[in-house]
Write a structure and sequence with these properties.
The complex is a heterotrimer of chains A (328), B (114) and C (638). In chain A, β12, α5 (196-205) and β13 (210-213) form a beta-alpha-beta unit. Chain A has two domains: 2-94 and 256-324, FAD/NAD(P)-binding domain (3-Layer(bba) Sandwich), CATH 3.50.50.60; 100-252, FAD/NAD(P)-binding domain. Chain A has helices spanning 2-9, 40-50, 117-126, 162-176, 196-205, 257-266, 305-324, and strands at residues 14-17, 32-33, 38-39, 56-59, 64-70, 73-78, 83-86, 89-91, 95-97, 114-116, 139-146, 181-186, 210-213, 218-221, 227-233, 238-244, 246-251, 253-255, 293-295. In chain A, the strands form seven sheets. In chain A, strands 10-17-11-12-13 form a five-stranded parallel β-sheet. A three-stranded antiparallel β-sheet of chain A has the order 5-6-7. Chain A has a three-stranded antiparallel β-sheet with strand order 14-15-16, with no helix packed on it. Chain A contains seven helices and 19 strands. With 328 residues, chain A is an alpha/beta fold. Chain B is built from six helices and no strands. The radius of gyration of chain B is 15 Å and the shape is globular. Chain B starts with 21 loop residues before the first helix and ends in a 5-residue tail after the last helix. Classes of the chains: A alpha/beta (328), B mainly alpha (114), C mainly alpha (638). The B-C interface holds B 30, 33, 46, 48-49, 51-53, 77-78, 80-84, 87-88, 92, 94, 96-97, 100, 104, 107, 113 and C 315, 318, 348, 374, 377-378, 380-382, 397-398, 400-401, 426-430, 432, 434-435, 438, 440, 443, 447, 554, 557-562, 589, 592.
Chain lengths: 328, 114, 638
């Protein structure tokens, strides 16, 4: 949306193809954003304003079925049978969350009170954090690195954002349920962003969130329906036993299904981490292997919203450069 | 008399220079994935033996790689070789083979009864 | 022309033949002496009666005709058959030839082998000519197979195999001399035929063609020498090469048909088997470590070779999936899996004491050094609480990592109203099989004792487990006295009794047969019938005994993660060729390994069944109240 808006402002004619019925992607699912916990709808409104330009032709429920290079421009065919021509393309197909049911030992989809971070955001939006049987949880556990940094599911990379999301959600839970206790089970605390470490401090100091260093190996249910996690408190050097009411899995980021399909039909390169591969890691992270096709956002790597917007603006700059200087 | 300053008492310190790292080196030579361990503790968390007694593979791996062989020498036999640790390791360390090789190394270099 | 009786060129052959005959007899005596008393009696009985006839039949069908190899791989089988059977026929009919056409009835072997040299004028007319035709036919037969063998060495695809066995230097020399035998016979006979105008369609035709431009009379003798020399070399080298399998296989067949089996320790029978391996390479072809993971030095043929040469096999022994595919395919019937287990058990001790031959030459001692008794490894195991129940459920270590399975089993138990007790609900003690697979029987025994106690004290009559690895050890090594069932068998029983009624789902399902369940324990039908009852089960190329291994194998200590992933990926791509909705399996380790390799849904049989339970009929509790006296009467050991 950012890229479309910026291009429109510069006077270009933009067609935005969106596979869902409305724009915004995952932003629509979030509640409050880190690091300052401002409302996500503010960002959404900002983007919607950008989109209100006349220059933008916004097509919803549209996906690309075929893409062909015609000399210096591209011809695309959509699933609705429309044919579009483009001098340049920006791919901003985003990410999907790791399917936590693949980590069967955590019991997502098997035990009722195991949910993902995305599910929790949904609960925040509804205003109620409740267990499956509508009671209020007292003890809440958060598991870091679900589907990231895990050789067994094929994702060696770190999804970067889940640690700070966990800290943010821990604070929010404590805000909503002052009687609750929250425990974060982490391998490392990766707080690489402005004010992220400060958020971590706040979580410990102000909100009393507990951090236990140990990767959870499995979760099971006891007779009373409470969840038990098997984890080693590596810093204390002993196994830890705890009964938990609600377990939240920090699902990592993966390349989206739509991106995968696009890669197949277009010949765009993907890297070993299965995200799109730009031609250069340092000064070409928006440029793809096809001339005139550029990347914006999380389809290339895990990114937060700030970075996504910056990346989109960089993509716009590349497009302008490309179109102005004769499509080389 | 200890020099006043940075000396740590001998019993406390891990004297990395003088420790016998042959066991660690044997393991690394035969199982290179041993180097990938980040001590996340997932192995110890899932360990069948760990529920009954003090046995933490994470701890033993760290001690072996530092050359602190006393505890591993006695504790390694507690492992039931069940394989759960290998199945949960996020770094893909072949933990079962590490235990097996460690026992072999102790028999070879350091044969105080294993 | 007078018929000669002897010529110096036959000396190499005579030396070779005598040497190999004496060697084989001595070797067999040594092997016999090292059998256990019971086995000695078995073998003696095996030389009389029905077993003797069986052995002769097997020798004919397998050692000569190579029927099993023919069935697996026709071209490979033809190659082996032509050489083995052909050579046998050559010797047999050659001996008959000397008998019929010679001056005496009992002749020295060299007379038969070099018949044409000593009787160059025979074979022009009548019966002699017909006989000559027969001999030529047999020679042609052998040569066709030889051609195949030569090509196979350079391109194994000619016999439909992916790779061929790598050979050591002495094997290569023996191979060369073997290859020289029949061509040199061909040429020698041809030249002789050419000189005298005898011979049939092969030797005669070739001979007369040579005679037209070559001095055949002078050329014949060198080739007779070559023939004798290559035979002699081959015989002398035989004992130190893989060709020792020829005489050894005969001895093995007699031993096996007498009822001797491999057992747990190394001994005569296991050694005989390692020598029977002809390095045919079928096991290499079947091995998934070979074609999926690219590991090419651990397969059974190389393993046998390493044992024969007393190499250090410790690491190779542990780098095996123990899936059973090679064991099943071995045309000679070598018990490959028990032999690998023996090497694992023997650990990394001094190897030289292990060889019976070497032990004999030095000083006869007990081949295995006595291990100092050790303190128990698992003394930390606590007193367990037990509960009385009809049926016990043992999930096993791996099932705890796939909670879907244990939850489904509990659902099924509850639906059937069975009076059951989930022994390791809080995470129990390992069944002990992983330790056994690593060769640590003594330690495994401690765990076996611990678990057995819980099982006995519960008074149950049936033990159900959802893990085939546990099932195998419960069945084979626990000696419990209670009925042990794999959960697929238990579910089938519930279905047959009508205790549980299931809906039929029309989903396409493919079944992956776990190695430990199928080839390992012989359970093929129950899982298939349960799945067919509940869903649309598809057939694959890898059903039943041909099933592939998932790669998760607890038996293999040495595989890296990415190698396992490759094996899993290959297996899954074979099984999902028909694009099923669900890939069903009956083992938690298989489930976890395969699920990580595919996007297709992977489910255990229990999960599929639990999802389809429609009607339930409460089971009557069968347990009778056991009083203390009855408990005391239960025998604790064999």
């Amino acid at each position: 949306m950012e890229a479309a808006g910026r291009l429109a402002k510069s006077g270009f004619h933009v067609t935005l193809l969106e596979k869902e019925t409305s724009a915004g992607g995952h932003l629509n699912d979030w509640y409050k954003l880190f690091p300052d916990r401002r409302d996500s709808s503010e960002v959404k409104r900002y983007l919607d304003d950008l989109m209100s330009s006349e220059q933008i032709n916004f097509l919803t429920s549209t996906t690309i079925e075929k893409i062909e290079s015609k000399g210096s421009s591209y011809s695309l065919m959509t699933n609705n049978g429309e044919n579009l021509n483009a001098d340049s393309i920006i791919v901003a197909t985003g990410f999907d969350l790791f399917k936590s049911s693949r980590k069967e030992e955590y019991g997502y989809g098997i035990y009722d009170n195991v949910i993902t971070s995305a599910d929790l955001e949904g609960m925040f939006r509804k205003g109620k954090i409740v267990l499956h049987d509508n009671t209020t949880p007292k003890i809440i556990g958060i598991v870091h690195c679900v589907g990231s940094r895990d050789e067994k599911v094929g994702n060696l990379y770190c999804s970067k954002l889940c640690c700070v999301t966990a800290v943010k959600q821990a604070i929010e839970i404590r805000e909503h349920l002052p009687e609750s206790k929250v425990f974060c089970f982490y391998m490392d605390m990766r707080m690489g962003g402005a004010y992220y470490e400060e958020l971590y401090r706040e979580a410990q100091e102000k909100w009393g969130v507990n951090f236990i260093r140990g990767k959870v190996s499995e979760a099971s249910e006891n007779i009373d329906g409470k969840l038990i996690v098997k984890v080693e408190d590596t810093l204390a050097g002993r196994p830890l036993k705890m009964e938990i009411d609600l377990l939240i899995l920090m699902a990592g980021m993966e390349i989206s299904e739509g991106s995968k399909k696009l890669a197949e039909i277009s010949g765009l390169n993907t890297g070993e981490n299965r995200f799109f591969e730009a031609i250069d890691n340092h000064y070409g992270s928006n440029i793809s292997n096809l001339p005139g096709v550029f990347y914006a956002g999380t389809c290339t790597a895990p990114m937060n919203i700030t970075e996504t917007i910056s990346h989109a603006r960089a993509a716009v700059s590349e497009v302008q450069d490309y179109l102005k200087n004769g499509k080389s | 008399m200890e020099k006043f300053g940075f000396s740590i008492s001998k019993g406390r310190q891990i004297n990395y220079d003088s420790n016998d790292r042959r066991v660690a080196e044997f393991i690394i030579e035969n199982e290179p994935s041993f180097r990938l361990c980040i001590a996340c503790g997932c192995c110890s968390a899932s360990c069948t033996a760990g529920s009954f007694t003090r046995f933490s593979l994470r701890e033993l791996n760290i001690l072996i790689s530092r050359g602190e062989n006393d505890l591993p020498r006695n504790d390694l036999k507690k492992c039931m070789l069940c394989g759960k640790c290998t199945l949960v390791c996020p770094r893909g360390v072949n933990t079962r083979n590490v235990v097996f090789l460690a026992k072999q190394a102790f028999r070879k270099f350091d044969s105080y009864a294993i | 022309m007078t018929v000669m009786q002897f010529d110096p060129f036959v000396i190499p052959f005579n030396i070779g033949l005598n040497f190999i005959l004496i060697y084989c007899i001595v070797r067999c005596i040594i092997w016999f002496r090292d059998l256990s008393r019971a086995d000695k009696l078995r073998l003696q009985r095996g030389f009389f009666g029905y077993a003797f006839g069986q052995s002769l039949k097997e020798i004919f069908l397998e050692s000569l005709i190579h029927r099993k190899i023919l069935k697996t791989n026709f071209r490979l089988g033809y190659m082996h058959m032509s050489l083995a059977f052909g050579w046998f026929l050559l010797i047999f009919f050659g001996t008959l030839e000397t008998d019929i056409f010679g001056t005496k009835h009992l002749n020295a072997p060299y007379k038969a082998i070099f018949f044409k040299f000593f009787n160059p004028t025979l074979g022009r007319t009548g019966f002699e000519h017909a006989y000559s035709f027969l001999m030529d036919l047999i020679l042609a037969f052998i040569l066709s197979g030889l051609l195949l063998a030569i090509i196979k060495r350079f391109s194994s695809r000619i016999v439909g195999m992916k790779k061929t066995t790598k050979l050591k230097l002495r094997d290569r020399i023996a191979l060369t001399s073997l290859w020289l035998i029949f061509p040199s016979r061909l040429l020698a006979e041809s030249f002789t035929s050419g000189t005298y105008g005898t011979g049939s369609f092969l030797t005669g035709t070739l001979g007369s063609w040579f005679a037209s431009f070559l001095p055949t009379h002078q050329l014949a003798y060198p080739f007779w020498c070559l023939y004798s020399l290559s035979l002699g070399t081959f015989f002398i080298l035989l004992p130190i090469t893989r060709y020792m399998h020829i005489p050894t296989e005969l001895f093995l067949i007699f031993m096996r048909n007498s009822g001797i089996r491999t057992g747990d320790k190394s001994g005569s029978y296991s050694e005989v088997q390692t020598f029977t391996c002809s390095s045919c390479g079928i096991c290499i072809d079947k091995c998934q470590l070979n074609f999926s993971a690219g590991i090419t030095n651990v397969q059974s043929a190389y393993f046998m070779k390493a044992i024969r040469s007393n190499d250090d096999v410790f690491n190779i022994a542990h780098n095996c999936l123990m899936c059973g595919r090679c064991d099943q395919a071995c045309p000679v019937g070598i018990e490959l899996m028990p032999i690998r287990m023996i090497q694992r058990r023997e650990g990394d001790d001094d190897k030289d004491m292990r060889s019976i031959w070497k032990g004999f030459l030095r000083n006869r001692q007990n081949p295995l050094p006595v291990k100092t008794p050790e303190l128990p490894s698992f003394g930390y195991l606590p007193e367990r609480k037990f509960r009385k129940a009809d049926v016990l459920y043992f999930a096993g270590c791996m099932t705890h990592l796939t909670p879907g399975i244990k939850n489904s089993m509990q659902k099924i138990f509850r639906a059937s109203g069975e009076n059951y007790y989930f022994i390791d609900e809080d995470g129990g003690v390992c069944c002990g099989r992983p330790l056994m697979l690593a060769g640590q029987d003594r330690e495994a025994r401690e765990l076996i004792n611990f678990n057995s106690e819980i099982i006995w004290k519960s008074g149950a009559h049936t033990l159900v487990t959802s893990c085939p690895i546990c099932y195998k050890i419960f069945n084979e090594s626990y000696h419990l006295g209670v009925e042990v069932l794999h959960h697929s068998q238990y579910i089938k029983r519930l279905i047959d009794e009508g205790t549980v009624r299931l809906k039929y789902s029309h989903m396409k399902v493919v079944y992956h047969n776990p190695c430990e369940l199928g080839r390992g324990s012989g359970i093929y039908d129950e899982p298939v019938s349960v799945l067919a009852h509940v869903a649309n089960l598809q057939k694959t190329e890898y059903d039943g005994k041909n099933s592939l291994c998932c790669g998760g194998s607890l038996a293999n200590l040495k595989l890296e993660s990415h190698e396992r992933a490759k094996i899993a990926k290959d297996t899954v791509s074979e099984l999902t060729k028909c694009k099923p909705d669900i890939l069903a399996t009956a083992c938690p380790l298989c489930k976890k390994t395969l699920a990580n390799a595919t996007d297709t849904k992977v489910s255990d049989i229990a999960e599929i069944v639990a999802g389809e339970i429609s009607e339930i009929q409460k089971k009557k509790s069968r347990i009778s109240i056991l009083n203390i006296k009855e408990l005391a009467d239960i025998s604790w050991s064999e």
